[in-house]
């Protein structure tokens, strides 16, 4: 009878814990962050450390909210699916918040806006979007750049890549005539390229916000990220990181301390 009573009590305790959500909260577990290793100044690896504007901003948010982070590299084309299936808790990669992506993941409040560029090798005759007509143009698969190219210059041949490094290599080798990508990354390519001279032909600001991605329905984590974002904007951390990593990009009014 004692065994039966103990078993009943134990079962009741398990039920109570389950009802109270006995799993680890966002502040108790180490959160896995999916990011990229090859897209400076937003997201990249330097001396074994995942850094860049987006990742350093997320680290600052985590400090404010007592969150523990662990970064890992992936391809951009796989990132949101990996967030949706719990492989990563957070996606950090200058991710534009499009309606299509919102069907699969939830996004934090905006922490920046998309500024795109057309990049070519120096000496290219391309000067603006009309010059892309009939050309082979590199884009990162499923990005705003991909959508912009197919909608703006439908007769351009979009050559889709899973990540930034192979797209850049294709531009340098002449396998593509131009490359559509984030302005900050394009400017970094110009500065750091030693094996080919590159230029930014044209840049254009969009109204598409960047956000950190989390699994749909993970309101606890989303709330913490949003609260932390408010804190790093209010104390000036956002502006300091922007000045460090994106000094030539405009600062939208809502991000000023």
UniProtKB/TrEMBL annotation:
InterPro entries reported for this sequence: Solute-binding_3/MltF_N (IPR001638)
Matching Gene3D superfamilies: Periplasmic binding protein-like II (3.40.190.10)
Signal peptide: 1-18
Keyword Phosphoprotein on entry: no
Keyword Signal: yes
Keyword terms: Signal
Residues annotated as domain Solute-binding protein family 3/N-terminal: 30-249
PANTHER family per UniProt: AMINO-ACID-BINDING PROTEIN YXEM-RELATED, MEMBRANE-BOUND LYTIC MUREIN TRANSGLYCOSYLASE F
Protein name in UniProt: ABC transporter substrate-binding protein
Top-level taxonomy: Bacteria, Bacillati, Actinomycetota, Actinomycetes, Pseudonocardiales
